[in-house]
Write a structure and sequence with these properties.
The complex is a heterodimer of chains A (322) and B (116).
Chain A (H helix, E strand, L loop, with lengths): L1 H12 L3 H26 L5 H11 L2 H6 L8 E3 L1 E4 L4 H27 L4 H28 L1 H4 L21 H19 L5 H4 L3 H6 L3 E2 L3 H23 L5 H23 L6 E2 L3 H32 L12
Antiparallel strand pairs in A: 1-2, 3-4
Helix pairs in contact in A: 1-2, 5-6, 5-13, 8-11, 11-12, 12-13
Chain B lengths: L1 H28 L4 E2 H10 L6 H13 L3 E8 L2 E8 L1 H27 L3
Antiparallel strand pairs in B: 1-3, 2-3
């Protein structure tokens, strides 16, 4: 039964949230009946290999879930390129990919546009977008072509183990998040005293090259330390299950928005993060820092979107049990 | 190469031919109430084998279109979702059957009376 539960868990991961519970309950009942029927025919319980074979025949969880998507769309150009089973995942990954690319370009291009002609700037906008579109599309077309060879040749024995429910105590992710928040807070608190924690061997050159940070760094730095302290408290609360998951998620969302706000403030400080009598050094340092800010903002934004999606009204817990 | 191409063309055409027939068969079979697994068995017993991953989503689509109704009920100590034909489904099934008979008669004329 554990195998069936693991299979249903994997199917449910790819289903639309609104109908997940209902579909899984129905699928579970149907497969269980099929198993009982087979057991009746054989006059004995099914062996593990027989259950594996049955699940293998039932189909790859991703493909099975894909067929329950409301719109049976696909991509075709004369001939079918991406079938309806894979199309929802293609669309989701394409949107995510293009969204992140657009965000990064949207921030970088106004800076580049100061020095370059508009057409060159637009060219630089379109090239990565088209490249991303082409890459994702080609990968999915190849996946669709090899559907029978790749997706249908999956091993039910390798399905992920059942996840513990949030009420069952700390899981590996909670522990990791808490340790990461603790290390991050201590690291940031120590960097002013030991700059090599941030810059590595490059710290030795900072004074030699007379690189000086902008004056606004001090309040922004302390704001970041306070934010990380809050994050640490939240991770601790999540670890010992002091808050139900929804308020914990809302708090995390607020902290992430705060982090994004710090990122926006930093963005507008470009190109004055540091100054130096050597313009090339200052330019290089400022650009490097800008890229770090953009990457951090993209990760934070992704976290915000993910948290918002999780905060949508949830169906009751999925019942995998037979 | 040519052989495998013919095979895949045949498979695609067979798939298209089956697609419409499956809906008709499912609607006809659901004049009597069934849940997913017993419906699949009933169809298989009558010689129409459908994959689970095709049939179960199809039932939901037909229900969304208003052709089927469903209810959760306990049977053999397990909750199951039972489907049956709705009033609209009954009307549509009758129309489809008329269409099927007209097409069947035409095909028979084309295939056999013209001796192709």
């Amino acid at each position: 039964m554990n195998l069936l539960n693991r299979y249903l868990q994997e199917v449910s991961r790819h289903l639309p949230k609104a109908k997940r519970e209902d579909i899984i309950a129905e699928l579970g009942a149907n497969i269980s009946s099929q198993m009982e029927d087979r057991e009746g025919e054989l006059g004995r319980p099914l062996t593990e290999s027989e259950v594996l074979e049955m699940l293998q025949h039932h189909g790859n969880p991703m493909m099975v879930a894909g067929r329950y998507r409301p719109h049976n769309l696909g991509l075709a150009f004369g001939v079918r390129l991406i079938g309806p089973e894979l199309f929802p995942f293609y669309r989701m990954i394409l949107l995510l990919n293009m969204g992140i690319t657009l965000f990064i370009l949207g921030v970088l291009l106004p800076i580049l546009a100061r020095e370059l002609h508009l057409t060159i700037t637009l060219g630089r906008l379109l090239t990565p977008l088209l490249a991303q579109f082409a890459a994702v599309t080609v990968i999915f077309i190849a996946l669709d072509r090899g559907r029978d060879h790749v997706l249908n040749r999956w091993d039910p024995g390798k399905l992920p183990p059942l996840k513990t429910t949030p009420e069952e105590g700390p899981n590996a992710r909670n522990i990791f998040n808490f340790i990461a928040a603790a290390v991050g807070t201590v690291w940031l608190a120590l960097t002013p005293r030991w700059p090599y924690l941030l810059l590595g061997p490059g710290a030795l050159y900072v004074s030699a090259l007379h690189v000086t940070p902008m004056a606004e760094w001090i309040p922004i730095y302390w704001e970041m330390v306070v934010l990380l302290c809050f994050q640490l408290v939240l991770q601790f609360v999540a670890l010992i299950r002091l808050l139900p998951s929804r308020p914990a998620r809302i708090t995390d969302l607020i902290l992430k928005c705060w982090g994004l706000k710090i990122g926006i403030v930093l963005l507008f400080k470009f190109p004055n993060y540091v100054s130096s009598p050597y313009p090339e050094i200052a330019e290089w340092a400022n650009l490097t820092f800008l890229i770090c800010v953009i990457v951090a903002m993209a990760i934070t934004l992704f976290g915000i979107v993910r948290q918002l999606l999780r905060l949508r009204p949830e169906a009751a817990a999925v019942n995998y049990a037979r | 190469m040519q052989h495998s191409m013919n095979e895949s063309t045949f498979e695609n055409l067979k798939l298209e031919l089956r697609r419409g027939c499956l809906v008709l068969a499912v609607l006809a079979q659901l004049r009597v109430e069934h849940y997913g697994y017993t419906l699949r068995k009933a169809l298989a017993d009558d010689g129409l084998d459908i994959e689970e991953s095709t049939l179960y989503p199809l039932l939901r689509r037909l229900e969304t279109q208003g052709l089927l109704t469903s209810e959760w009920r306990e049977e053999d100590k397990r909750n199951k979702r039972f489907y049956r034909l709705s009033d609209d489904g009954r009307r549509v099934l009758q129309q489809l059957l008329d269409e099927w008979q007209t097409m069947g008669a035409s095909l028979n004329r084309i295939l056999w009376e013209q001796k192709i």
